[in-house]
Automatic annotation (TrEMBL):
Protein known as: MoxR-like ATPase
GO molecular function: ATP binding; ATP hydrolysis activity
Domain of life: Bacteria
Pfam families in the record: AAA_5
PANTHER family the record matches: MAGNESIUM-CHELATASE SUBUNIT CHLD, MOXR FAMILY PROTEIN
Organism whose genome encodes this protein: Piscibacillus halophilus
Family, per entry: Belongs to the CbbQ/NirQ/NorQ/GpvN family.
Ranges of residues in domain AAA+ ATPase: 52-255
SMART domains membership: AAA
Amino acid sequence: MDITKDLPQNITNLIEQHKYTGETDFDYLVGEGGYIPQSEDLLTDLIVAIAQGKNILLKGPTGSGKTKLAETLSSLFNQPLFSVNCSVDLDVESFVGFKTIDYQDGKQIIDYVPGPLVQAMKNGHFLYIDEINMAKPETLPVINGVLDYRRQITNPLTNEVIKAKEGFNVIAAINEGYIGTTRLNEALKNRFIVIDVSYLQGEQLKNLIKNNTNLNDEKLINQYVQLSHDLIAATQQGKVSEDAASIRALLDACDLSEMIPPKRAIRRAIVNKLEDDREQDVVQNLADMLFE
């Protein structure tokens, strides 16, 4: 599905002007695409921001497709996407790389293995930082200079000053309010263009299911679209957590439903992931009302 076919000509021209056409050893890191944006404006704004070299912060609930959206931008611009998955254990080496012992001409040497940040900067590719607010606050300042007008970093392991090659962009994702996350420093957040990513619904979700799962039964697809709508409403009412409305989990259930009964598929892909018995009952009751 061509998600750019309805975009204005000047926006599609931007993609062509900034699409990566050089040779690279990292073709395998180019995303496959597949994200269907909830609005034309969202896709237009992202394309403009990327073309202007802006840093992008994707903000939305878990399972809303932020990673898939980053991969789709990678596909649109034919740009390899280096990734950092943040956690409380994330350290500077996770960004810049590490030193290791190697052998050269029979002698032991200390070799440096560049990390995803260094690789993306030197090659002019994209860097995706997932769940950036999971990282320890003391780790993130290493990228401050990368995110502002300087577009450079002094590698703490080698003392090399690295200036980003043209084409380098940072795309980060954030889930606010989750256990283990911290509030993103305002100075850091101000270095990003913030894009809200919400759950897909209606026809957009229907197209996503058709294009990204094995399910082709029209009736079942419509029932899953309704289930997603009901789960989102339940999260807004405080009956279940956002995990229950994850589009990722819904797509898993759709795939399973090609071979097993839908209610069982929903139990495996959605219900059993929830730790609260009350939430499990809410989801199962919604499924029972929709599916035979």
